[in-house]
Automatic annotation (TrEMBL):
SMART domains for this protein: LRR_BAC, LRR_TYP, UBQ
GO cellular component terms, semicolon-separated: cytoplasm
All copies of domain Ubiquitin-like, residue ranges: 19-90
Pfam families in UniProt: LRR_8 (PF13855), ubiquitin (PF00240)
PANTHER family linked: PTHR48051, RAS SUPPRESSOR PROTEIN 1 (PTHR48051:SF1)
InterPro entries named in the record: Leu-rich_rpt (IPR001611), Leu-rich_rpt_typical-subtyp (IPR003591), LRR_dom_sf (IPR032675), LRR_domain-containing (IPR050216), Ubiquitin-like_dom (IPR000626), Ubiquitin-like_domsf (IPR029071)
Keyword DNA repair in record: no
Keyword Repeat attributed: yes
Organism: Trema orientale (Charcoal tree)
Top-level taxonomic group: Eukaryota
Name of this chain's protein: Ubiquitin domain containing protein
Record keywords, A-Z: Leucine-rich repeat, Repeat
């Protein structure tokens, strides 16, 4: 745990906020935001929709060492800014591998009507084949394609489970009512409050992951509460000033990441999100948290660093009996204050035990890896 004031004997248990790593895949460099406590297997799952390479076909290498699925990012000595190489095994791609074409480009021949008709037929056939590939794989992978608009054929897909439009120049998002997708990634685009059609997003009743990091949003609408199947909401690095009260309707929400915004107040309805496991509110303008945070009985990880907090809800340690990671880096909350909270001793034991397990696992797994390397 990290605190704004130092306390002897506790600094080595400090948690870290989300870090950014760069994954080298062929000629591409894929930026990934991930918690240091996530596993390498979690990282591979994040890379699957971005590369079309199945996790079992991914080999991740850092500093010449093969990264092991069960190890955490932290235990693998991967830190903020680290570079990792991804090597893909043949035959373990979904669809036809990474989709890299700038799909909005449509060359038109001027050689006469015959050539025009021929090119038009080729374009139609190309679009049809691409749509069939998307339907078969269930993944529409259009990240880093320099898109300024979402191709119409994306919305024509009927079986897509994952739609990845990360790292483009997309300004307008207007999905039709009833469009089906389970995971929607729109990170690092140019989306503003007025350029996203929220009624279309809200109609995605089966949506489990919505990721809008690194855009230009200043608010989230009440319609967000209609996404009752949502399990992960990522809206970090925007310009949000608050969260809607309707966020409390997201009863299945497990991960909420709204770090690096301008949020000054969290609605009391957050306490109704009873499934929350991880909450990241790092780098906002918070001076307090609502007492209802004590209702988050499944909460394991809470990141509050770089805020103006001076205290925490009095029932946090008493009621959140699974909490083991608490980041208070660069706040005004002191260890002396925390020790006065009811339930502090139990929380302190949980976070020390977690840290020790990570250390033990790191030592054991490193030894196994070295032995395997010697055999080669």
């Amino acid at each position: 745990m990290e605190s704004g004031s130092s306390a002897s004997g506790d600094g080595d248990c400090e948690a870290q906020p989300t870090i950014k790593i760069n994954v080298k895949f062929g000629a591409r460099s894929i930026p990934i935001l991930i918690s240091p406590d996530s596993t390498i297997k979690d990282l591979k799952s994040l890379l699957q929709p971005l590369t079309n390479v199945l996790p079992r076909g991914q080999k991740l290498i850092s500093k010449g060492k093969l990264l092991v699925d069960e190890m955490t990012i932290r235990a693998s000595e991967v830190t903020n800014g680290s570079k990792i190489m991804l090597m893909a095994s043949q035959g373990l791609h979904q669809g036809d591998g990474p989709v890299l074409k700038q799909v909005q480009s449509r060359p038109v021949s001027r050689a006469g009507n015959a050539n025009k008709l021929s090119n038009e037929k080729k374009r139609v056939d190309h679009d049809k084949l691409r749509l069939e590939r998307w339907e078969k794989a269930g993944i529409i992978a259009l990240s880093e394609c320099n898109l300024k608009a979402i191709p119409d054929e994306v919305w024509a897909s009927k079986r897509a489970r994952i739609l990845d439009l990360n790292n483009n120049d997309i300004e307008e998002v207007s999905p039709p009512i009833g469009f089906f997708v389970l995971k929607l990634f729109l990170n690092a685009n140019k989306i503003t409050d007025g350029s996203i059609r929220w009624e279309g997003i809200a109609s995605m009743k089966d949506l489990t992951v919505l990721s809008l990091n690194q855009n230009h949003l200043t608010t989230l609408p009440a319609a967000l509460g209609e996404l009752t199947s949502l399990k992960q909401l990522h809206v970090a690095n925007n310009k949000l000033t608050d969260l809607p009260n309707e966020i409390g309707l997201l009863r299945q929400l497990e991960v909420l990441k709204v770090n690096s915004n301008r949020i000054s107040k969290i609605p009391a309805s957050i306490g109704d999100c009873s499934a929350l496991i991880e909450v990241d509110l790092t780098a906002n303008f918070l001076s307090e948290l609502p007492d209802t945070c004590g209702n988050l009985h499944n909460l394991k990880s809470l990141h509050l660093g770089n805020n103006g907090l001076k205290s925490l809800p009095s029932t946090l340690f008493k009621m959140c009996l699974q909490l083991s990671t608490l980041d208070l880096h660069n706040t005004e909350i002191t260890m002396d204050l925390l020790r006065q909270f009811e339930g502090w001793e139990s929380f302190d034991e949980r976070r020390r035990l977690k840290h020790q397990k990570q250390l033990d696992f790191h030592v054991m797994d490193s030894a196994d890896f070295d032995e395997g390397a010697d055999k080669n």
